Amino acid sequence: MLSRTADCLYWMARYTERAENTARMLDVNHQTSLLPQPAEFLEQSWKKLLTISKLEESFMEKYDVVTRENVLDFMIYETSNPSSIVSCLFAARENARVIRGRITSEAWETQNTTWLELQRILEARNQADPSRLLEWVKHRCHLFRGVMHGTMLKNEAFYFMNVGTLLERADNTARILETKYEDQATLKVLRTDKKVEADGADGDFFDFYHWAALLRSVSAFEIYRQIYSDQVTPKQVAQLLIFNKQMPRSLVSCVNELIPLISEVKNQQSKEIERLLGKLKASLDYSDIDEVFSQGLEEFIEEFLQRINHIADEFSNAYLIPLAVA
Asked: φ and ψ at 103, to 5 degrees?
């Protein structure tokens, strides 16, 4: 397959997944921001969302203050932000347009219809409800993935799209987990030090809805209830999102699904990717949640992000258009 075709397939799927995951991160922050909580914590949680996405500097070039409204505007609508939902959906549609002959008409029509519907939403953006808009984004991305799996041949084009999806999903699941765990730790410090009051909010009540919102952001709340019938706890949430092989968005599930895909598109340069994925799989297979928490969840997630993004870089170097040429 030509590098340009592979590049468009990979990035079409990756941008679609990024739009969905951005919607998921914004939705969990938006939902938890509606709960009673310290003002300092609320501002920090939105700022951390920008930091973890490496967007804080570009955000501050456009806005004077970090608020819920400003972050939502920047992460949903701002075209100068390449990771905004509008930018991602545009990029996904443009990549689909370039390689229309390599995807089914149903896959193309799904991408194109999403973009056309988004134009109507943008015309009434001042009246748009953030929660409904974010749910719409998730639904359209789900629809594209379902059409892709239901109509496309299981060939190289399909494999490149799945690699892009899984690399993006692993990165974003890790970021969501890290962000919300840090938020919870920050709030506990504030309460313990009694620097601020929780506006009368009951700690256990807030903790439950905080972790429930996180689970819902990755479509895992019902799955969690099926597996763990007891209280929602940070350790069990992390266990589910890191180590559960049956959970579609878990880190181990993404890595396990990537390995056979790389074998399907193997070339002379793919050996290093297989080696890196094998080492990452082994580190997940031979770790457990107690070891992760003793090492520190933040440190574990940071290491995972470095390794999965290094694998993504190696994949780009092996198969896709070099950055300087693109």
From this structure: -120, 165
